């Protein structure tokens, strides 16, 4: 599987919201406001994992990092259901 990791863009919001809803129970899901904050924050970085299969690029996962002065914290990581255990 050919994967690419890139910084998120504002257009990734709907993918991130869908991924959040599919991946986590309701009590653990980030709100729409929280997702938007993550995309806009200088303190956080959201990375998108893309798969290049059959000449089509598809977003298959995401990772949210909290950036501290001397550390990184993985806040959230999720993969689209059909790509888990692949």
Summarize the structure.
By secondary structure, this protein is an alpha+beta fold.
Ordered list of secondary-structure elements with their pairings:
Layout: E1 3-7, H1 13-23, H2 32-40, E2 44-53, E3 56-67, E4 72-79
Ends apart, CA distance between termini: 9 Å
* Parts with pLDDT < 50 across at least 5 consecutive residues: none
Give the proportion of residues in helices: 10-25%
**Helix and strand succession?**
EHHEEE
Secondary structure: number of strands: 4
- Strand fraction equals 35-45%
Number of helices: 2
Largest sheet: spatial strand order: 1-2-3-4
Question: Which features does this protein show?
Answer:
86 residues; alpha+beta; four-stranded antiparallel β-sheet; 2 helices; 4 strands; globular
Note down, in words, how this protein is organized:
It is a single chain. This protein has 86 residues and is of the alpha+beta class. It is 23% helix and 41% strand. It is built from 2 helices and 4 strands. It has helices spanning 13-23, 32-40; strands at residues 3-7, 44-53, 56-67, 72-79. Strands 1-2-3-4 form a 4-stranded antiparallel β-sheet, with helices on one face. Strand 2 (44-53) and strand 3 (56-67) form a beta hairpin. The protein is globular and about 40 Å long.
């Amino acid at each position: 599987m050919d994967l690419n990791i890139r910084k998120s863009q504002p257009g990734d919001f709907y993918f991130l919201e869908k991924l959040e809803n599919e991946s986590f129970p309701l009590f653990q899901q980030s709100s729409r406001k929280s997702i938007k904050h993550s995309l806009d924050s200088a303190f956080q970085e959201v990375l998108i994992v893309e798969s290049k299969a059959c000449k089509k690029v598809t977003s298959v996962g995401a990772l949210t990092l909290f950036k501290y002065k001397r550390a990184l914290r993985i806040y959230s990581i999720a993969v689209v259901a059909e790509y888990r255990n692949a």
